[in-house]
Design goal:
Elements lengths: L36 H28 L7 H16 L2 H10 L22
Length: about 120
């Protein structure tokens, strides 16, 4: 289950992608960040592919008899934990970044980014 996420092992999923021009460098403008709909679509696709990969791997382990499950509740708990472990890893975040067009060294990935809310009342 701790196999690296590899684009070649992910299921092919047909999703509609906006026909907008893709930015040549997603990080080109450091002064104002606008969440690009194309980038958001790529991120959703990458998350969906990651979910499909985890589901297929769990199903494979169960069908091979190497993973025993007693209930759907247990399956969902294992599934959620598996996703959490991937999303909490540099490898998992790097996969999402690459899927959105960023080339970032895994050593530069911040696994605990600061959330800077702008509260206006």
């Amino acid at each position: 289950m701790n196999e690296p996420i590899n684009e070649r092992t992910l299921a092919t999923v047909d999703l509609e992608v906006a026909n907008q021009a893709l930015p040549s460098d997603p990080s080109a403008n450091p002064f104002k960040l606008v969440v690009d709909p194309v980038m958001r679509t790529r991120l959703r696709r990458a998350l969906f592919d990651m979910i499909e990969h985890h589901d297929q791997e769990l199903a494979r382990y169960v069908s091979e008899g190497s993973l025993a499950l007693e209930s759907y509740k247990e399956y969902i708990e294992l599934f959620a934990n598996s996703l959490k472990q991937t999303m909490g890893s540099r490898e998992g975040v790097a996969y999402l970044l690459r899927s959105c067009g960023f080339e970032v060294q895994e050593s530069e990935i911040n696994l605990a980014p600061e959330t800077r809310w702008k509260v206006q009342r």
